[in-house]
Design a protein that fits this description.
Mean pLDDT: 90
Low-confidence stretches: 1-6
Largest sheet: 12 strands, antiparallel, barrel
Strand content: over 45%
Radius of gyration: 20 Å
Strand order of the largest sheet: 1-4-5-6-7-8-9-10-11-12-13-14
Number of helices: 2
Helix content: under 10%
Shape: globular
Order of helices and strands: HEEEEEEEHEEEEEEE
Distance between the termini: 38 Å
């Protein structure tokens, strides 16, 4: 009588060891390290992450993109795998992201748009606030080339975030630096920074952020004439499930 139940109990234990989380977001501008990926227009985004109690996780995240990104592709799909562990108030997180732009090679013949980026971060909580130092390195790839062979990309970011006690409001601030010249960085080394606020009610979060870069006016211009590295305010509406 006990033997038939054993596989069922094992499956139940395994299902409790896994957690599935998802998100869906509408944003008025998709900014990646300060530079618009949607020609300063709206983007639809969504993601799904499966986490194990050991700390390992895998995920997929996608967004609409536009204009110069990846040879004219209109989609970005990120395939993610990593490991995250919290000890006391300290959280370590590291892994890799494979950036996939479907259809880019059909728009621009022979164009290699996809690349891998390795990341790591350490976050420390101080009461309601969290300080996070993150790094990301993309090994040399033809997708990051400026036309002179393969290029790599190295980025660091220091962020501060936290919720206002007894309110649904959270605040955030961050400053990042791209230390290498590549297609991903817009062709130059530069600094980006941001200030944000959000309001959460149930599974829905409303956000408002200001993002800017050290790029001079008109330094990164899309084919439609928009300055995609210029500072701006954008809003988001997201739902978590």
């Amino acid at each position: 009588l006990l033997l038939p139940a054993t596989p069922v109990l094992a499956q139940e234990a395994e299902s409790k060891a896994l957690t599935i989380n998802g998100s869906a977001t509408l944003t008025s501008d998709y900014r990646y390290r300060g530079i618009s990926q949607t020609d300063k227009d709206f983007a639809v985004q969504g993601g799904l992450t499966v986490s194990h109690t050991s700390g390992a996780y895998v995920g997929i995240w996608g967004s609409s993109v536009d204009d110069y990104i990846a040879g004219g592709s209109d989609q970005e799909i990120d395939l993610i795998a990593g490991y995250k562990k919290t000890v006391g108030g300290t959280t370590l997180d590291f892994g890799g992201i494979y950036y996939y732009y479907p259809g880019a090679e059909k728009i621009t013949a022979g164009y290699d748009s996809d690349f891998l980026e390795l990341y790591g971060s350490v976050a420390q909580t101080f009461g309601p606030a969290t300080v996070k130092l993150a790094t990301a390195y993309a090994p040399k790839s033809s997708a990051l080339s400026l036309g002179n062979g393969k290029e790599d990309n190295f980025y660091m970011n220091l962020g501060l975030s936290g919720a206002i006690p007894n309110t649904p409001i959270s605040l955030s601030a961050g400053v990042g630096r791209t230390f290498t010249k590549s297609f991903l960085s817009g062709g130059q080394k530069y600094t980006d920074w941001s200030l944000g606020a959000s309001y959460t009610t149930g599974p829905v979060t409303f956000g408002l952020s200001y993002v800017d870069t050290s790029y001079a006016k008109g330094a990164v211009v899309s084919s439609t004439g928009k300055d995609v590295a210029k500072g701006g305010i954008f809003g988001t509406i997201g739902a978590a499930f």
